[in-house]
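Changelog-adjacent note: as of this version, every example in the card shows the full chain rather than a window. The one below runs 420 residues end to end.
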Amino acid sequence: MPELTDALDLIIEAASKAAEVKPTGVAPAALKEGAGNRAAPLEELGSYEGDQINPDIIFAGEGQRLNTHRAMSPKYAVRLAEVATGYKRVVSGRASLRQWFTESMNSADFPVLLGDTLDRLVLTAYARYSPTYRRFMRRRLVRDFRSVGSVRRHGGSRLSEVRPGTDYKQDSLSESSLTYAVKKYGKKYKLNWEMIINDDTDAFASLPEEMANDAIQTEMYQHSSLYVANATLFQAARGAGMNNKLTAALSIAAIETGFNTIVAFTGDGGNPLNNAPVYLVVPPVLRIKAFRELGVLNLAGTAGTVTLAGTTNVLAGELTIVVDPMIPILDPTNGNTSWYLFSDPTLLHAVEYAFLGGYEEPQVFIQAPNAIRAGSGEQNPMDGNYEDDTIGYKVRHVTGGAHTNATGGWKGCLWSDGTS
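Full-length structure tokens:
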């Protein structure tokens, strides 16, 4: 597991430097980008509003949050480096999981240090991912779980000439708005005594990657669901020249039609938007076709007999191809034939996603102990749960979003289901 051991080396190196110099924070380092699709999304834990907007209610019973341990004293840094080194020896097969736990569990700070190491590994793994939805959606941070909104004011006219001695004319304004709230998602993970006794190193080593992957899969699923096959955002009956739903299969001609449809959309009062799509979003099975259609030279022929048509493709370089693996999952009917166009979200965003400020990354928790050793009166999370001897960890992620059809975001996107 080279990526895991590399991440542990970074933790050890950072902690060792902190121990030598002064207390400091250790930020998770981003490794190379990657993407995984093997884990299920996290379960939604709840949404809150009104009088429930209270941290004591929202985070009640969460256990001990681990990733609050960012500022390190030299003493803490030394112990963190030791635990991370032990973790590395176990996952690399140079030490027994059972022996390491047996030797370490009598140390009062071991549960926190192990949890802190695990949390840093989760954040490092999380940083490796670069979900494609982030490229064509607008990102936002919110302060709490209350519903947040976006308002767009409609004016619709150019400035009027103001002749000498005359008053300025008052523009007539209207507004459109949308609201949504972030939600809390999470999942529990159990480390049991049987796993420790049986020295199940692989299951132990895969835990950080599993947590990070579950969190990123949740993001991808929830945020892509805001646009995929959305009948509100994409409509074929908005009126003459205002439809952003097509049925044409992916081709140069179809992409050109979609491109020209979006650039023809006007703003308030018929003013030009100066807006053009920059992203072509496709499912995995259309990736090669998309690259072929947007090549520098046009191609002709059928499958197996593709040849150069000899003419320059004017769309080459105009669009960036983005592959969203969630399209066929969220749209089992037309997901493998659908394609989408999106404008630059910094200019006109069709979809907006949000994170709770201060909680933009997954948070890892260890289960508060509920067992006390007879004769000692001490509680230690590594002793396990009283009922079943399990050591509980949990990951929590807070996110949300909405499409922006209500405020005109539909003018920055187009969908073709590829059925004709």
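Structural remarks: The chain is about 30% helix and 20% strand.
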